[in-house]
């Protein structure tokens, strides 16, 4: 394999080399910083595989080109050491630094470029340390979420994006122009119904893929195209089991983050430099509270909320924010009134609430939503009729309850929201490479 | 965590328990087979997490219900052992086998249901051992492909499904009905162009997500919605490096398959029982041949092909098949004429061919396609103009070549084709849970 060696690999070798240099043929990357001194020039380069720079110390004058931000370069015969201040460094003679790709009008002139500006430079914004690191950070989070499920014998499956189901009720759907099929075809808003089919064959399933909502909300918490990790498991009858699983998955992520140095030194204005305290908080106990208790708390809080709250109404984001503040951390709110939630949720014995939960995080709101599903054919059919939905459209779904039905449930984790919260970046548009929101669809 | 124990876990414990029983509170699953004898009844159950059955040996008469295919059941207080014939078994008293979910008209009456019939039962087909195992098999393949890339410091990224780029040229695109944006929006046919953007920030990137082609081809090798693993890496100038990486990735998959017992005992008619020999073949050397040599070989073969071949024409599937037969295994065909391939491929010194490859597998044809990308601004712009494409549309893409451009390349692996080939199932419709093809869009 002739893939060139990465800085990440070389730094790993240098770290374990007891201060001795690691000699390689060459290393390539992009110039991230240039600091000319009187007799030497420092050229910091990165190759995208790690947060850390390689500090190229140019002695005996400058090279044949003028090093500048954004250029791609190759260093020949480097000897890379880790210095006592933890920095990685190589001394370089001028003729050993080679220009690969020049720049003309490199648009990212310094590290302090504001995020709104970067969002308008979709083809260049990932050259910043802050945003490229955010992508690596996301990869790590997704991998750790999957690992927990894999270890619990879940199978990763691939339900469709194109679907002819239009009754999930999770929001307005995008529709296809073409009539390749004899029915209307939409982009999925959630894979849950298909996951339930697969769960009946595979016992425990999950997926990680994009969902679509054709809503025009223009907030820092909504995207038209976003990724969800959706989970469905058989032989589970209680909310508590699902919440335990959610808590385990996210705490495993946080633990793995705490073990690494994955945060850039520089955070843009408005972003949270204190994420390590945020992580520590997430490793403590999480609160669980019923919807009914939550409403009691909110009503007795004395706060004059903008949206009036009475039992039976859905919580608004201001209410969710108050609850997180009140508990000082994540809160599971459980057992909402049946009419606040989707038709497929398991009716509880009180006939008024359903066996469900929303996980609320401070600042960002709902991160996960889940429920036990109604597995009784008659109860589910009655609910579909009560809501004036068409039972014929859902016959296939109802039929699952006729053939070897099992108690089961699941949930969906909003990936961009989770990543944003953990990275301390309040706008989820930066947690996906190219965001699709009202008015914006670049590349 | 109160998630119930899985059969996979229990079997693992029993396997390492030296023939001693593993005692647990209960185990649940679906009935896969019932064999009533004179005094005892065998009820085989599975919970979807493993290929193997638990054989429940009912002594002292039948339980309070009549065990039947497809029911969900719970066994209380089982003591599970692995017998000398490797089967897992528990002796069970009638009152310890509990019915969870009955059946009414369970549609999958025996293991020999033909695949075309199963495809018409999308909500039930994954209850078969053959198809549920195919989904687990796919998960394993995808995980192993990702692992190789992760170990080589690639970052998994999430390019968009919705895109305003419509000039990739890889096929007809699905379009959105809604006008949420001031330009036409399509479903992606390939993430390559966006991956190139991300590669410039992250060095090495890959994605694993659905692509869409609005073509009406109705073959066992085409889907309207299919998954690709697309890879893009910087500082690579030669085809050989990319082919080495492809070969490593797929050989790592095959090696991991060889170490496990992931094939059902039963294969439907038309499927390949001899896949283990197929795997062994894949671990040997793969052939690499230029397009020009391939054409010479085909022309001198004496075969009367249906589609006439001359240098400059693309290879047809009959030609690809002949090449694979001729070499008795996978073949990389490299350096196609420039007009056979997309505009972004690196022009070779001969000015006639491009630095690219197709990987052909026997029976199924192209599994992987890739190339080095043109990284020179002027050459790329000239090629775009030569093809009468609009350079304004591609200005952002051209600009990548102005700011720190690097030699780079990548490829896309067709997941369903790879999975089908490795599982010995000739129709890729079975390698995705719910296939979307001309005329068929269920669930």
UniProtKB/TrEMBL annotation, chains A, B:
GO biological process: asparaginyl-tRNA aminoacylation
One example GO MF annotation: ATP binding
Domain of life per record: Eukaryota
Top enzyme class: ligase
SUPFAM superfamilies in the record: Class II aaRS and biotin synthetases (SSF55681)
Keyword list, A-Z: Aminoacyl-tRNA synthetase, ATP-binding, Ligase, Nucleotide-binding, Protein biosynthesis
The Aminoacyl-transfer RNA synthetases class-II family profile domain, residue ranges: 135-433
GO cellular component, one term: mitochondrion
Pfam family, one: tRNA-synt_2
EC number: 6.1.1.22
Statement: the UniProt record of this protein carries the keyword Transferase: no
NCBIfam families according to UniProt: asnS, PRK03932.1
Family to which this protein belongs: Belongs to the class-II aminoacyl-tRNA synthetase family.
Record-given protein name: asparagine--tRNA ligase
Organism: Kluyveromyces dobzhanskii CBS 2104
């Amino acid at each position: 394999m002739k893939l060139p060696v990465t800085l990440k690999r070389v730094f790993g070798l240098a770290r374990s080399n007891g201060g001795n240099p690691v000699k390689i043929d060459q290393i390539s990357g992009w110039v991230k910083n240039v600091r000319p001194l009187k007799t030497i020039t420092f050229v910091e380069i990165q190759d995208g595989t790690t947060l850390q720079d390689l500090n190229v110390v140019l002695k005996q004058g400058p090279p044949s080109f003028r090093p500048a931000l954004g250029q791609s370069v190759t260093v020949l015969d480097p000897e890379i050491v880790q210095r006592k201040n933890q920095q990685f460094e190589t001394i370089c003679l001028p003729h050993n630094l080679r220009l690969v790709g020049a720049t003309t009008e490199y648009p990212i002139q310094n590290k302090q470029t504001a995020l709104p500006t970067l969002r308008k430079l979709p083809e260049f914004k990932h050259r910043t340390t802050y945003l490229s690191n955010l992508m690596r950070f996301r990869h790590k989070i997704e991998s750790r979420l999957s690992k927990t499920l894999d270890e619990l014998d879940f199978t990763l499956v691939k339900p469709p994006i194109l679907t002819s189901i239009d009754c999930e009720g999770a929001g307005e759907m995008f529709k296809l122009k073409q009539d390749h099929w004899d029915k209307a075809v939409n982009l999925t808003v959630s894979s849950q119904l298909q996951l339930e089919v697969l769960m009946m064959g595979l016992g425990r399933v999950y997926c990680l893929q994009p969902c679509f909502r054709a809503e025009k909300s223009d907030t820092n918490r909504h995207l038209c195209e976003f990724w969800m990790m959706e989970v469905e498991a058989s032989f589970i009858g209680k909310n508590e089991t699902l919440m335990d699983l959610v808590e385990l998955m996210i705490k495993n992520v946080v633990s793995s983050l705490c073990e690494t140095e994955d945060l850039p030194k520089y955070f843009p204005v408005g972003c949270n430099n204190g994420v390590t305290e945020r992580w520590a908080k997430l490793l403590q106990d999480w609160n669980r509270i019923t919807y009914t208790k939550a409403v009691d708390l909110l009503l007795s809080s004395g706060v004059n909320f903008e949206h009036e709250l009475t039992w039976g109404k859905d919580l608004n984001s201001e209410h969710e924010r108050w609850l997180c503040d009140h508990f000082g951390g994540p809160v599971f709110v459980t057992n909402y009134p049946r009419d606040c939630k989707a038709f497929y949720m398991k009716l509880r014995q009180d006939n008024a609430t359903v066996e469900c939960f929303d996980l609320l995080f401070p600042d960002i709101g709902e991160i996960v939503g889940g429920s036990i599903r109604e597995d009784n054919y008659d109860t589910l059919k009655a609910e579909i009729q009560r809501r004036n939905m068409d039972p014929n459209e859902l016959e296939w779904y109802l039929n699952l309850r006729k053939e070897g039905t099992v108690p089961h449930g699941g949930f969906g984790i909003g990936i961009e929201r989770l990543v944003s919260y953990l990275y301390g970046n309040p706008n989820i548009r930066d947690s996906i490479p190219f965001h699709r929101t009202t008015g914006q669809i670049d590349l």
